[in-house]
Structure formats: structure tokens, C-alpha cells
């Protein structure tokens, strides 16, 4: 761990960015906005179908508690697919 003060002059050490970041440009390999919009909606549809299938399977196996468990487990497994900007 670093000391909170500079060894030479005693000034307080603050963490700041070395250089301001330049305005981010869109990478050359990025998809068009319409394709991104469609792919996001398709991914949401697949996630909802996964949750429905897990709930249906759980309900068939153990009625309402099985459905709750199935949806909860599927939701837990889908959690890494959620972008950080949503949370």
C-alpha cells in the first residue's frame, strides 16, 4: 500500500487519470444501429423464452414451487448476460 503522502515534499497523493481520454470513436467493426437494435431484441426474446421454458419444466416437475425454482435458477444462469449499464 502506498503512503498517503509524497516522500519528497509531503504533498497528498491523489489518484487521477494520467491523461484525459479522447472522445471515443465507433470501432470499424461495429454493427449498424438497426442491426444492434434487432440483435438486442432477439437476445431478450431468447432470454424470455428460456425463463418460460424453465418455469414450465419446473411447474410440470413440482407445481408452483418447482416453477419458482426453475425461473429463479434460469434467471441466475442468465445473469452474466445482463450488461453492466442496466444494473
Can you give a write-up of this model?
The chain has 87 residues and is mostly helical. 53% of the residues lie in helices and 0% in strands. The chain has 1 helix and no strands. The mean pLDDT is 83.
Please outline what is shown here.
This protein is mainly alpha-helical and 87 residues long. Helix content is 53%, strand content 0%.
Average pLDDT reading: 83
Oligomeric state, counting identical vs distinct chains: single chain
Q: Report the sheet-strand fraction.
A: under 5%
The H-and-E topology, N to C, reads as H
Number of helices: 1
Largest sheet: none
Question: Which helices and strands occur, and which strands form pairs?
Answer:
Layout: H1 33-78
Sum up the structure in keywords.
87 residues; mainly alpha; 1 helix; elongated
Amino acid at each position: 500500500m502506498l503512503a498517503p503522502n509524497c516522500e519528497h515534499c509531503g504533498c497528498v497523493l491523489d489518484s487521477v487519470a494520467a491523461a484525459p481520454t479522447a472522445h471515443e470513436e465507433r470501432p470499424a467493426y461495429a454493427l449498424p444501429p438497426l442491426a444492434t437494435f434487432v440483435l438486442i431484441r432477439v437476445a431478450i426474446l431468447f432470454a424470455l423464452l428460456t425463463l418460460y421454458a424453465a418455469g414450465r419444466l419446473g411447474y410440470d416437475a413440482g407445481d408452483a414451487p418447482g416453477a419458482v425454482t426453475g425461473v429463479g435458477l434460469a434467471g441466475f444462469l442468465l445473469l452474466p448476460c445482463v450488461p453492466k449499464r442496466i444494473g
